[in-house]
Write a structure and sequence with these properties.
By secondary structure, the protein is an all-alpha fold. The protein is built from seven helices and no strands. It has two domains: 109 residues, no CATH class; 39 residues.
Length: 159
């Protein structure tokens, strides 16, 4: 990621805040690797899952290439991680300035009872934007209206 053609064209910044005296932090995403009962060789499957993000070499490669945000506390608290200058972001100390404070402030999330529906409708609107069938502003309006209508149809009061 550091040596790509877009190196230095992007930067990271703290989230805008409604109330700077009471800042909030968000996290959208996360991954998990699980070994299911269908695995023919559960021990080997677990070894592969651990090797993807949990062993030292994978963790280091992941955070250095900005492909994962490590949850490993040893990595998160290491000077090397905290003070790393991210080449892709023009040498910013993104971990120290943005990511670690966000991770420290994150209090968790509560998903709505229709999050899956929302994601499906969001994806449909993005497809329309990419196809040139609508504008971003219209897609946002349409998505809002779809979610309000769906919430009401599910018995929720929308204010």
């Amino acid at each position: 990621m550091g040596a790509g053609k877009d190196k230095g064209k992007f930067a990271v910044a703290p989230l805008p805040q409604w109330d700077v005296a009471n800042p909030v932090s968000v996290n959208w995403g996360g991954s998990a690797f699980a070994v299911t009962s269908q695995a023919a060789d559960k021990a080997l499957a677990a070894k592969v899952a651990m090797g993807i993000y949990a062993d030292e070499a994978s963790l280091e490669d992941g955070w250095k290439t900005q492909t994962i945000f490590p949850l490993n506390q040893g990595v998160l608290k290491s000077d090397e991680f905290v003070n790393a200058k991210v080449e892709f972001f023009g040498g910013q100390t993104a971990n120290k300035d943005i990511y670690v404070p966000a991770e420290n402030a994150y209090k968790g999330a509560v998903y709505s009872p229709f999050t899956v529906y929302y994601y499906a409708q969001l994806q449909a609107q993005i497809v329309k934007i990419n196809a040139g069938e609508t504008t971003g502003a219209q897609a946002a309006t349409d998505l809002h209206n779809q979610i309000v209508e769906y919430a009401k149809s599910q018995g929720f009061t929308v204010r």
